[in-house]
Amino acid sequence: MNQTSCTPVTFNFEHRFLPPVYISVFIIGLIANGWGLKSLLQEWKKLKIISVFVLNLGLADILYLLTLPFLVVYYYMKSKWVFGHTFCKITRFCFNLNLYGTIGFLTCISLYRYLAIVHPMRVKGRLTVAHSVGISITVWLLVSIQSLPDMFYTKTFGNKPGKCYDTTSKIFVESYLKYSLGWTLTGFCIPFLITLGCYGHVIVVLWRKNITDKELKQGCLKLLFILILLFSVCYIPYHVFKNLNLWSRVLFKDKKCREWSNGVYIAHQISRGLVCLNSALNPLVYLHGNKDVSAQLRLLLQRTYQMFRCQFLSSAMHVAQTANEVL
Question: Number of structural domains, the chain?
Fold first, then answer.
């Protein structure tokens, strides 16, 4: 449906939905990652090479979690950024480092487990801690290079308190959409396929060879389940609705109205809440082998899920009520 003027998208949903989610993730994420890193350091010698990747995973989470209080203030103030243009860009950059750094290190962990189980003799003695440190530095560099162009896009309006865009202003939205699609391919799709391929092959090998080590099988299945949970709940919805929302903004700029624009916008805000949950869920990756800590952490995360679910249902009911009033 083309019109000379389009009905503006309502932006109130993010102000109600995101702050409680960010507060919950900040509290649970700091506790879970602090707990997880403590457990990791206690088992450092036992974990060996993989511990380097896991340590970087935890550091990426903490880097992002420390920016959440500023975003809570921003959305509680109805999208008024009062911390300056530079810090806005740093905050968004930290989010991207966390998101794509996490995906990168999860891919490294998957590749390591794949090589250790499927090709143990080929890699025995060839992979060292020094190699994992070098690979980790490479991941950080690649993620930084991918995220760096985002820093050059407009994030705020002038010197007055205003928007701190997670993408960019409408002036550059067409260019940003192209950049985002390429970023999604290299930063998400390719690592996702590698991770899926690695664990799919590992599961097949474990069952075909009739390996009797039940703990090894259960550990692989648990980690596969955690990765599927992270990708399906946190990463896939975010990338799908982020790009759809950018496309909707491009159409809106060209005065091409679509009835689904509001729905896509709301879905994008929900996916932003879901993607930040990865900072609270990532500790499961390095705690799944510790039975005592895992049981306590699961209880903690169940409570977090209940808080998040209640907030989501409350926001959804409010949106439905608002829609009915409009109709």
Answer: 1
Beta-carbon count within 10 A of 252 CB: 18
Q: Which of 31, 33, 20, 92 is nearest to 61 (CA)?
A: 33
Specify the pLDDT at position 12.
79
End-to-end C-alpha distance for the chain, whole angstroms:
19
- Cα 197 from Cα 114, distance rounded (Å): 9
* Residue indicated by tokens 């143990």: 120
CATH of the domain at 71: 1.20.1070.10
> Which tokens in the block code for residue 282?
């990532």
Instruction: Render 312-324 in DSSP notation, one character per residue.
Output: HHHHHHHHHHHHH
What is the C-alpha to C-alpha distance for residues 30 and 8, in angstroms, rounded to an integer? 37
Domain containing residue 123: 12-320
What is the biggest distance separating any 2 CA atoms in the chain, rounded to whole angstroms?
68
CA 300 from centre of chain = 20
Q: What length is written for the chain? A: 327
- Kindly report, residue by residue over 60-115, the tens digit of the pLDDT: 999 999 999 999 999 999 889 999 889 999 999 999 999 999 999 999 988 988 88
Question: Is 116 domain-assigned?
Answer: yes
Would residue 6 count as lying in a domain? Answer: no
